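To fix ideas, we reproduce below a protein record of this kind.
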Amino acid sequence: MNQPYDLWLIGALLTQGAIALVLLLVLGLIRVPLVMTRKIALKDVALSREPWPEHEKRVSNAFDNQFQLPLLLYVGGAISLHFGTIWIEIVIAWLFVATRLIHALVFATTNNVTQRFFAYTAG
């Protein structure tokens, strides 16, 4: 175990996971009040996202996206930890996490497709 390098890589993996958890929390903060105030009926969203307002859809899509491309980071991170982490893997992992954070922020806020595309492509 290459202790300092492994810890930096684990930090990147945990940070990526934290992005998903924060988006999930924000999603809950949007959805629960809408349901509690009966602006959205549960039966209407049981099988479709259509009734949700646009802001909820942006955050929901950003959250869903955290279970697509980032899975490759987790697989690569596990392989790297198994065989021994080197410094370039840490740099790549943190750059990837930074681009995913930017992508999630753009997705959940302005949803500027051009900015989102560049963040996704950079990742």
